[in-house]
Amino acid sequence: MRTPENSADLVAAEDVLLFANAAITATGQREFRSGALDQQLSLDFLHAYIRVNYRRLYAASLALDINDHNAARIVLGLLETAGEASAEERRTEGRLIAARLARLPPQRVYRLFGEVRRAGINNRRTRAIMRDWLAARPDLGHDAVKYRSGVKTAARHVHLRCPQGAEPLAEVGAFLFRPGKLPRYEHPLLDAWRRAHYEQGAVAELPFTVAEGFAARHGMKREVFLKRAAPRMTRLERLRTHAVTQRPDVDLAAMPLTRLALYVLALPFEQRAARRTELTGALRTAARRAAGKHAGSWGRVHAVLDDSFSSSGSGQKRRRPLAVALACHHLLEVIAAPGAYRGLWTSGRGDALLVRPWGPTPLGMRVLDALEPGPGGAAPDRLVIVSDGWDNAPAGLAGEVLRVWRARLDPGRRTAVVHVNPVYDADGFDVRRLAAGVPTAGIRDAEDLPALVEIARFAEGRTGAAELHAYLDRRVALFLGERDAEQETENETEKGTMS
User: Fold this and answer.
1) Structure confidence by residue, pLDDT tens digits, 92-124
2) Exposed, middle or buried: residue 269 (CB in 10 Å: 0-12, 13-18, 19+)?
3) How many whole angstroms separate alpha carbon 430 and alpha carbon 43?
4) pTM score, two decimals?
5) What mean pLDDT is predicted for residues 34-53?
6) Contacts of residue 146, Cβ cutoff 8 Å, sequence gap at least 6
7) How does residue 224 score in pLDDT terms, banded at 50, 70 and 90?
């Protein structure tokens, strides 16, 4: 019988796992079965509940594979309620915040700084965090052109000193706060922005998102503009415009696996079939890169992959659940032992490249098929289910199949079963589960699958709260250690350059 202290620890562990699933999958956007407002209200409650009751664990979740939306919300919540933390907690939180900000996309960080200013958070610690992040930016002039309003807001909030003269920071200050005062800029991008107002040739020198506005102002044809701007595009921008430019230097295999799956699913069936070799090769290469050290380490793996109609997602997250399933399919093929992978789509299709959202969700029938012994009569070592959990043909069959399998046919747990769910259920404050005894984890990017399977085992009930806390401590130590190592490398590089 559990002691009250152990019961409290168990509740805390369950709450933290619930929050981790939400922070990985939910973005406050509309899902297939719930609106944006429902998502936002559900997230608001969870963030407030975990921050107030488990502040240390709330901060530690910054070291997990949570999405950028929730990482920014955690940073804002910690900064806004700094008075509720002890001095030691504030020191740890400061390191975690700095490490997480270094990994966030710059546009997300500038947006966060705007929220900090609107919330009136202006203590010394917050200003120091913002100043350190701005000082670490590789080219503040580039940021001033591409994220002008964000840089301006941050500079005002931290009272950034912009001296007079020809120093780089002085030019940025003049660009932001005294536009038109300098006849020219030494920084090439700042001067290109100045010339782009009247010189069409300077447009291609600017970052793509800024150049688009100037191209429209000059009346440039879209195709001509894209070809001129291609050398300065990011990989994602090249992927978005590939259909127009058809540039041969777009390396699809270099794209992140889930992002590449989204691109593939956005193509018409005819293009997918015509480019089968190219697209399949790119997906497999991206999967091998994502698998890393896990390649071939999972033994016999069977997967149930949801391509039902609900995998179409929503207008804001179009085809996201299906893209995660497609990416997981290719990743699991690499992580399984050679020739020991079997993927089953709920629709019954056998061609992964041509999947589309269609029909009901007969998870129970596919789970039965997946538990069938493979070649040699051996059951799979792992069964991975990638689905939003709405088992409806017939309803509840998957949970019952898994319950009977575990209780009667596999009590020794020779087959590890895990359910990863890419959709947050706002009503349940968690991702939807198939059965109480099946470990479930939220997933946003297929690349995080190995780490999420490790988290999911804590939800199975066979490990205690102490193990979960130890796992979080290890993740925090690794997260901060990597950040410290990166900073040390940067310092050594800077010393070598100066000498």
Assistant:
1) 999 999 999 999 999 999 999 999 999 999 999
2) exposed
3) 10
4) 0.88
5) 95
6) 207, 209, 210
7) confident
